[in-house]
Amino acid sequence: MSSATGSSNALAGFDPAGAAAHDGIYGLPHTPDQARVVIVPVPWEPTTSYRRGTARGPAAILAASRQVDLFDLDTGKPYESGIAMLDEDPELVRWNSEACEAATPVIEAGGRIAGNAELQSALLRVNERSTWMNDRVHAVVRDHLARGKIVGVVGGDHAAPFGSIRAHAERYPGLGVLHVDAHADLRDAYEGFTFSHASIMHNVATLLPTVKRIVQVGIRDLSEDEHAMITGSNGRITTFFDRDLAAQKLEGEPFSKTARAIVEALPEHVYVSFDIDGLDPALCPHTGTPVPGGLSFREAVFLLAAIARSGRIIVGFDLNEVAPGPEGDEWDANVGARLLYKLIGFALSSAR
């Protein structure tokens, strides 16, 4: 059964304007077999170094998604193509718990563990389980890509999607990664963690040679070494710093011109890696490492629309670092669920 046929059958008798009547993401009834878009939850956060909570992001987004209206002014009716979210993998949940426990004393030591056999052993356990997580995510995403699905990952911290980016880079040589974030994420094994949330783009740049270019947007927090990696990349890493984006707006340059410049830096096939802290922190106050500045929600949507209008294809995506508030505050998840629906819609509208 094709995804289109399966989605149509699943929607028989379904009221898209009614209250959510199903447990699926956005209240939809689709199974992964019926859906054109498959969302892979990755509740992962061992290397989060400021505050935790993002491992609860996938479940929070799932719950909040059921309040999102399915008709979208920007992308139409993405739900008609079928959208399904996989269940959280219990082994990933267990590995995350084990890795978080092992990572805590290493983080408390600031990664300065030379000569401490116990902390060195803990670091090895974190890196081992991070490798397991990467391999599991890679296998799941690769298998769904082979079945013709559009695949998105929902983290967890920003270490979560490396396996997904790897699977997409294998399928689409010459891939471009649009990286929206407050942080450059170009640190080499931050605090000793090989697959740190602060190292995701370093690992993409150094371990995935078929990625043609990384285009970063909204960056406003980085180290001198990260800046040197950008400037020494010969354009393979192209960064649109938040400072410069803000200056252009203050000088009267329309964001449409800025968005065109960002899109022109991307190749035909685009993978969007979106850390929610790339937005104004008023939209994500409980994210792991919030930073003043950032894109507005409408600017982020305009940028995604500009990619689709350009004829480029959004072949996959991830959304990370969404964390619910400690008192059950749903604002972060509300924003995350709506941003995820936009990512799904523009991926579908750009597909050929």
Brief rundown of the structure:
The chain contains eleven helices and eight strands. The protein is of the alpha/beta class.
**SSE class:** alpha/beta
Q: Indicate the mean pLDDT.
A: 95
Number of strands: 8
CA-to-CA gap between the ends?
A: 20 Å
Provide a count of the helices: 11
What low-confidence regions span 5 or more consecutive residues with pLDDT below 50? none
What is the C-level CATH assignment? Alpha Beta
Instruction: Please indicate the percent range of residues in DSSP E strands (runs of 2 or more).
Output: 5-15%
The amount of helix comes to 40-55%
Give, in order, the helices and strands. Answer: HEHEHHEHEHEHEHHEHEH
Number of self-contained structural domains: 1
Query: How big is the Rg?
Result: 19 Å
CATH 2nd-level architecture = 3-Layer(aba) Sandwich
Give a short account of the largest sheet.
8 strands, parallel
Overall geometric form: globular
CATH fold-type name: Arginase, Chain A
The CATH superfamily is Ureohydrolase domain
The side-by-side strand order for the widest beta sheet comes to: 2-1-3-8-7-4-5-6
In words, what does this structure look like?
This protein is an alpha/beta fold. The protein has one domain: Ureohydrolase domain (Arginase, Chain A). Helix content is 41%, strand content 14%. It is built from eleven helices and eight strands. The chain has helices spanning 3-10, 57-65, 90-108, 117-146, 162-171, 200-207, 224-231, 242-250, 255-264, 297-309, 331-350; strands spanning 37-42, 83-85, 150-155, 175-180, 211-219, 237-241, 269-275, 313-320. Strands 2-1-3-8-7-4-5-6 form an eight-stranded parallel beta sheet, sandwiched between helices. Helix 3 (90-108) runs antiparallel to helix 4, helix 4 (117-146) crosses helix 5 and helix 9 (255-264) crosses helix 10. It is globular and about 65 Å long. It starts with a helix and ends with a helix.
